[in-house]
Amino acid sequence: MLMKKNIGFIGSGKMGGALIKGIISKNFNRKQIFVSDPAEGKRVAEEFGINLTGSNSELVSNVDVVIIAVKPNRIFDVLDEISQAVNDEKLIISIAAGIKLEGIKVHLKNNGRLIRVMPNICALVGQSASCIFCGPKTTADDREAAVALLSLVGRTAIINDESLMDTVTGLSGSGPAYIFAAIEALADGAVKMGLDRQNATLLAAQTVTGAAQMVLETKIHPEQLKDMVTSPGGTTIYGLSVLEQRGFRSALIDAVAAATERSRDLGSR
């Protein structure tokens, strides 16, 4: 279904650019991809061989699916600009963090079928953890198209309560930063104990990648996987004991909660 649609990107920064790259990597017809972006549009269009439009409204007129990939502080200006070109034949997908569908609907004069998406920065390497919430006008085909699009750059979840998008922001939206900090700390520990920086970073990053892959592929609960590594009286239980003493688990829980609350604050402004 997705492969039959013309897709337009308003904004082609990190997220928009990652999605464009993901689509093209799956042999999507470049003639069906449009971009509008005064800052990066020309470069992106030339790099990927896609269509550059002269305005956001022109882009909307030429496509079936519109990806709004601008910063949250710009989205309402963009929506006001394209509102005359949007009708209920158009699927509008917003990736602007914290911007609720109700606000989008008002600026589009209640036109368009709306989906809200929260991807994350790992889309740049095809490993995004994305989540979608579909508005009331959307169809099963719309949801299928949104999942297919995001699956090109990672894995996708669907939720039925928009308020949980703040929790998604606190978990997978902000989460890569928590893991980057963990990788850096693991590597620092190895360097402290004599390993060179390059190998320490490689081993730390691959350890995180491998552990995550085991959770996803085996579908075994993380607690059970942890126990598989933890031999009685062995090295791992000593390390885990230190993490428990220092509040490792509660720190991560509190980090997700704090980021969620901040997302709620930003969305209420």
Write out key terms for the chains shown.
269 residues; alpha/beta; Rossmann fold; ProC C-terminal domain-like fold; eight-stranded mixed beta sheet; 8 strands
Percentage of residues assigned to helices: 40-55%
C-alpha Rg (nearest Å): 21 Å
The fold-level CATH name of the largest domain is: Rossmann fold
What string, H for helix and E for strand, traces the elements in order?
Answer: EHEHEHEHEHEEHEHHHHHH
Q: CATH superfamily of the largest domain, called what?
A: NAD(P)-binding Rossmann-like Domain
Task: Kindly state the number of beta strands.
Answer: 8
Identify the overall geometry: elongated
CATH class label of the largest domain: Alpha Beta
The average pLDDT score comes to: 94
Q: Please describe the biggest sheet, giving its number of strands, its sense, and whether it closes into a barrel.
A: 8 strands, mixed
Sequence stretches where pLDDT stays below 50 over 5 or more residues: none
- Order of strands, main sheet, comes to 3-2-1-4-5-6-7-8
CATH architecture of the largest domain: 3-Layer(aba) Sandwich
User: What's the N-to-C terminus distance?
Assistant: 37 Å
How many H/I helices? 12
Class derived from helix and strand content? alpha/beta
How many domains, as an integer?
Answer: 2
Strand content range: 5-15%
